[in-house]
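hiii so my PI (J.) wants the whole complex modelled not just the main chain, which honestly fair. so below is everything: two entries, each one labled with what it is. i double checked the lines twice but i was tired so who knows lol
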Amino acid sequence: MAAPCSRMASRPLWQFITNVRRTGLKHTGVRQFSLSYACRAATQTSSKTESVASPWKLYGAVCLQRLPVISQERNPIEDQFAELMHQMELERSLLSEHEQRLLEDAERMTRKQADNYDSDEEEADYGGQETITAQDQDDTWEQNLKHFQPALRDRDVGGTPLGSVERCLGDSLVLLVQQTVAKENIWLLPQAPWEAGETLRQTAERVLSSLPEADFKATFLGNTPCGVYRYKFPKDVRTESCVGAKVFFFKALLSAGSASQKEPFLWVKKTDLQGYLKPSYLEKVDRFILNL
Amino acid sequence: MASLTQLQLALHSRTLDRAALLLRASVSVKHPIQGSLAFSNERQYRTMPTHGIGKYKHLLPKEAPKKKKERQQMKQIKTATDAEYGTLNVKVSGYDMIIVEHYSQYIHNLCNRLGVKVAESYALPTKSTEVMVMPEQGTKMYVDAILKTHERIVQFSQLNVTLCPIFMEVMLKNQPEGVQLSVKPHTEADYQARFKARPELEGLMAQIT
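here's the output for the full assembly
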């Protein structure tokens, strides 16, 4: 691939505005994102007047992640600790206004039932009955609570297919795509060759938009790549001008998207990557995927 | 004797105090009948040898004169350069104050540990939202609940461009439920919004113009 000739390539400088929400379980199963940014193009000369072409082919790849939608399940230890802390807080806490009202009302009722009830004295102190007592309010709130049905935590009871975005809502998933590289059909992070005149980040954006039959809206987290994987071609393919390839990975977070089920997509957790990726590739990719 | 005392007074009276103390003590021991004089706690006259006994302010180190608190000025808003972002505001908002505060503290600690300089960390006033419910039979709405939205802002500057994606990802992955996160560049309008309006001043200004 010819080296880029001397040209003013503007590298846009970001001032981004990201608005992230953790909503309840929605049908999209994806965290809502809204991104608006103002590009301030700082003209930077990325001119390289090299007479010798670089022997490496450049690829831009995107590591598209879907962030978890709901919180993770707790360990048994975490469960026990949470219960213990809750119990301790309850024991140390003071009564709230509502609870005090409940107690006062109950007390007043018992005093009313007693034989030596002096209604004039009571009403003089208190100044008239209220229409709704605290107990009534409590009952209405209990009724409302019973009507509320929270959605199920775990949707893939039946086992959603691996290609669906909505599996494993508690973990973050990475997108894998099957592509033909060197006449082999392998699973890898979606990538595309770099073309002259564009930044590597634009290559990554192009990759995302050019995925067949899929419509993913993603937010890129920055201009800098997060990882690099370089490999040399096997000896018979190697020539003077291309010794191997370097793949630059960019991180992006899924904001909205859908894909048809037929296409070879895969959303996997980090622990499952081992079953799909080649070992040397996996080693480099593992370094920048966080498993939080 | 009088001239001697005057000379001693003119000098730094440190040694004099010491001597006077000793003298006083000895006096009180030798003549307990005259104890009333020793315990009278009166300042001695300027000619007396014990004048200035008990001074200590000259022994303390000099303090800088206390300045009056200046009017709060806005800190410089840094602009973005090629290698770093400018002043950014991370706003954490939600209904549950405990979780919101804990999350903002977490972000602050994360910045400290990753070496990002935190310029300011403050809270915006709480906003109360009343939830009104209209029952099916009647027409009048009544208040069902009051929801309070709490907001905390962590402001940092000079976030390294290479660090940014990692930082953002860690923040987003650790975001608790019920909390909204928003990252924006800091503007002067944001700063001015924190101050209370002064209606009298504005009235006077309107009258002038």
